[in-house]
Amino acid sequence: MICPKCGAEIREGFLYCSECGEEIKIVPDFEVELEVGIEETISEVAELIADSVEDETSGEESVPVDVKRSDEKKTRSYIGPGLLVVCALIAALALSFGIYRIVRYFNDYYSYDVQYARAQSLFDEGDYESAVSAARHTVSLNRKETGPRLLLADSYYRLDKYDESIAVLNDLLNDRPHDMAVYERLLENYEKEGDTDSIIRLSEGVKDPDIRKMFEGYVSNAPQFGTDAGIYYEPVELSLSAEGEGQIRYTVDGNEPDIGSALYTGPIKIDEGETTVWAVFVNEKGIISESVSKNYIVEKIQTAPPRIVTQPGSYSIPQLIKVEEPIEGVIHYTSDGSEPDGSSDEYEPPVLMPLGKSEFKFITVTPSGGTSDVVSAQYDLKISGIVDASYAQSAVQMKLISIGKPVMDHTFKAAYGYSNEGRSYYVIEEYSGSSRLGNMYAVDAQSAEVFTLTRNKARGNYDFGIVNPF
To answer: Of 63, 199, 343, 357, which has the fewest beta carbons less than 10 angstroms from its beta carbon?
Structure first.
């Protein structure tokens, strides 16, 4: 169909020109049917007249053909007047009946109620093609009524002509922007076509809260960020949230996320450096929201590193490893040369110097997670004395056996050195298998005398005790 005003092509189902807005007058599909109906009525009148003539002549006495011919004039003059009167009466009645039928047909044809009922009946019978024609004709009679237009859209829908159904419904939506029945049908059509973009566009202009509820399963709102973008001086724990049931998918590599990106299950830790977090929400219907992102910069807090008091070097007299603790933060350290972090041993004096070579590394960790530079010191302890480390280990075991302790299957290891009041001691640890039992002993490097050794955190040193059976 062509628009009579601008000449643009009109798609089936549209009642207005999409180019100029001109209303399109529907040309009824019923003109042929109307013509057929009139012809049938005239035929009935003709048949009625023919039957009447036959009835009038049926009562004549049968005569031979040649007699009829010879007496044709006489017969005609005899039948003529009566037959003409009867025929005239019958023709008048038939004509009146025909006119009545035609008038009634015209009245029904242009009756909104009759045609709407007919269109509904055709739809109920499942004759959707005829229902489309009937509904279009009904709309042409009164396009202000909603019923025929909905029926037309439903007929197209049943014929899988979703574009035509959508065209009718969008046209109807212009007249009835708050009609839930129109929105319901539009959603059904768009869903059949898998056109979620049109569903989202349709929802954007809806203000009515009741109608908006219809879109809850179709509209996927973007996630919300729990922390604003910006510059931070400590690691960020970023929480994401979204409305409705579904999943949040995110990326931290700068790429926009999709349904295959990382699944959000808890706060995202953003460490030092610059990080852009992208996120989308995927609802229960698999509809993906728009992508949203925020940029975070976490700058390193320059925390002062620990100051090592015990100078690195070689020692023959053991020293405690001492570090000056910072005003803010906790010192963590390692003694095997590995890099320390917040999970390494916490520095709590006194810390013994290991026998042989060792490398201590220290780091300060602030409550906010900031870290200092790592500082280190290397030591080499060789205790000078009459007793060596191996003898000191045996001395402890023999001492315990002599007082009745069952330590034959225990292992004793000289691991550290300690000095007190000018004397040097080997510090021995007791093991059962691979488990350290927590008992510590001190063996004098000159006399091999054995003592118990207990840490005194309050004074920052160790206390000596007598080895006894209890």
So the answer is: 343
Q: Round the average pLDDT of the chain to a whole number and report it.
A: 84
Give Cβ neighbours of residue 459 (< 8 Å, ≥ 6 apart). none
DSSP, res 431: E
The reply to whether domains 224-298 and 307-381 share a CATH topology is yes
- Report the candidate in 318, 368, 314, 372 with the shortest Cα–Cα distance to residue 347: 372
Cα 235 to Cα 296: distance, rounded to the nearest angstrom: 10
Q: Which residue has the tokens 């060596």?
A: 388
Tens digits of residue pLDDT in 83-102: 666 667 766 666 666 665 66
Cis-peptide, bond into residue 350, ω within 30° of zero: yes
> Quick one: fold of 307-381?
Immunoglobulin-like (2.60.40)
Determine the residue type at 380. Answer: D
Identify the DSSP state of 429.
E
> 224-298, which class in CATH?
mainly beta
Q: How many CA atoms lie within 13 A of 9 on its CB side?
A: 2
Of the pLDDT bands very low, low, confident and very high (cuts 50, 70, 90), residue 76 is very low
